[in-house]
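Work through this protein:
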Amino acid sequence: MARITRHTGRWTLEDRFASPWHYLPVEVPPGSWGIRVELEHDRAAATLDLGCLGPAGFRGWSGGARSSFVISARDATPGYLPGELEPGTWQVIVGVHRVQPEGTPYRLTAQVTGTPGEFRSEPQADPPPAPQARPARRELPASAGLRWLGGDLHSHTVHSDGALTVPELACLATRRGLDFLAVTDHNTISQHAELARSAARYGITLLPGQEVTTDAGHAGLLGDVGWVDFRGSPDDWLAHARQRGGLMSINHPIAGDVSWMHAMRDRPPLVEVWHWSWLDPRWTTPLAWWQAWDPAAIPVGGSDWHRPGSDAPLGTPTTWVECEGTGPDEVLDGVRAGRVAISAERDGPVLLRSGGELIAVGADGTILTGPDGPRARVTGQLAAFPALVGFHRLTDASGATLALTP
């Protein structure tokens, strides 16, 4: 028989003023097999996030995407980590994200069982078959021993608030002709356990990542760096990434109510300059923010893909990385070295730096534009120009950005 713990009450604005995160204890006795937690509240009137800490640390996060979760020795709800249940006091995290002035009543029920199989996570769809054909890889002029790979550094799955499983997302990326994809679910790393298998199945490089998500802004952490505690400061996140060989990006710094508001003592190496929230590429606002924040930061792009119709299509924009190989470490090394370029889409115009030149590919009729304005007309499908200091773009006659290189 399951052991039941209940917490009831009302979250108020004063609770939110005190802290974004609150903790409800659940006792887990020795020999427990699984835990099931359900949070009930009026989801139309408030947004409450959900997560879990065991005595040994992080066990999962689903934010506002789910109202319940299961963790057992053998499986777990996406967003949560399966494994033996450590005996002791567990903490269910409730993030008080949005509440009405009159407050929000809630009920939390936690059940702990010692019976194997009593609680099961939600079943996942079978992985789709690998596509029989994929778009031909795009070959761009590269330095000796290197190769340009095109991909997307920002995407989500069912492990946070995305619509697709990891295999389904990898299959979609393959069908769209991407060479790599970073899977960056919100405040969790449960998706990482699936990456190697899906990468092999679909012939694509999958980068481990996570999007550290707070009210005051989102940051992309790239690399197998372990879970990053989103309750710390952005400087803590940056130190964590550096110590473990990862990279940190400021994600969509200008994007409505999720724009970057955090102060930092230091500057991360990357900035997601190009994101679907750049609604009109004639605007230079993201570029101005980048130059004001840190002109030395390496620009990257990401679609922030969650589901069809809600964000930009996967790979829009496409981040190009000049790599020594095709593995996750080689892609990250290329980004770290600043060998990057961004194009509006995989098959659109691209602007690269190579051998002291700026090379425009597939860009006939566009305009080469430097930090101070237009420089030259691009003629032909492969055109080279002397490389000058500063970021450069390919624009159309209206000034809309089509491609970017640092």
User: Anything to note?
Assistant: The longest strand covers residues 88-98.
